[in-house]
Write a structure and sequence with these properties.
This protein has one domain. The protein is an all-alpha fold and 224 residues long. Helix 2 runs antiparallel to helix 3 and helix 4 packs across helix 5. The protein is 64% helix and 2% strand.
């Protein structure tokens, strides 16, 4: 074997060792076996929050378009046809509640990503806790503790944000239409009963969603 061939074999062997063991050092520099550099975690999480904001905007637009179509059908039908208007109101309420679940999931995802962002800035976020999606199946247990007002709401002011306020308003309006047909209520009584139902239904859905999603949190992930 010539010296050139021996040198080539040594170089190939060294290259193979580097590929097989990406954590080994070359000279004074080590190759870190990470998908994302630790210093870039806040930037990655910031992009994920921006994505969740875009998803929320798209879902709001979808909700408004569908509600516009149903409202147009309601106006065209006329209030005198109670059976049809009641059916349209019921469909509108179900569509709104479906959209509300999707909007609320994005709301929780942004809250979780904000928590991860704070952990990343403090240098406390580990690679296995960096999610691929805004609301991963396995999350850090207790991430809302000492941060959120309660398990289903971060701040009271969030109730005035479009992603929570708009579905509540739409459900309130369509409940007025539905109860006026079913119970023949009118005036303040109609508004009071509809508002009371909204104040019960939507928070109950949030609490039920939290309880259902809480079962997906892995007990193996660190508590905070």
């Amino acid at each position: 074997m010539t010296s050139a061939e021996q040198s080539g074999l040594e170089q190939a062997a060294a290259h193979a060792r580097v590929v097989a063991a990406p954590g080994t050092s070359i000279g004074d520099r080590a190759i870190a076996a990470h998908d994302v550099d630790l210093r870039q975690y806040p930037m990655v999480i910031r992009e994920m929050i921006r994505h969740e904001n875009d998803v929320t905007n798209h879902r709001l637009m979808w909700l408004l378009i569908v509600q516009g179509l149903i409202a147009n059908a309601y106006v065209t039908t006329g209030a005198e046809k109670r059976g049809i208007t009641a059916m349209l109101a019921l469909v509108a309420i179900l569509v709104t509640l479906s959209a509300f679940v999707m909007l609320y999931k994005s709301y929780q995802a942004r809250g979780y990503l904000n928590f991860l962002g704070q952990q990343a800035k403090l240098g406390m976020l580990h690679e296995q806790d960096l999610p691929l999606a805004g609301w991963p199946r396995h999350r850090i247990k207790g991430w809302r503790a000492n941060v959120w007002f309660c398990s289903w709401l971060d701040q009271f002011s969030d109730l005035l944000e479009p992603y929570l306020f708009l579905p509540s308003l739409l459900v309130l309006l369509w409940l007025c239409v539905l109860l006026r047909n079913w119970l023949e209520l009118a005036g303040p009584a109609l508004l009071f009963v509809s508002a009371a139902l909204v104040a019960v239904i939507l928070p109950a859905m949030c609490i039920a969603w939290i309880g259902w999603q809480g079962k997906d949190a892995s007990p193996d992930i660190r508590s905070v």
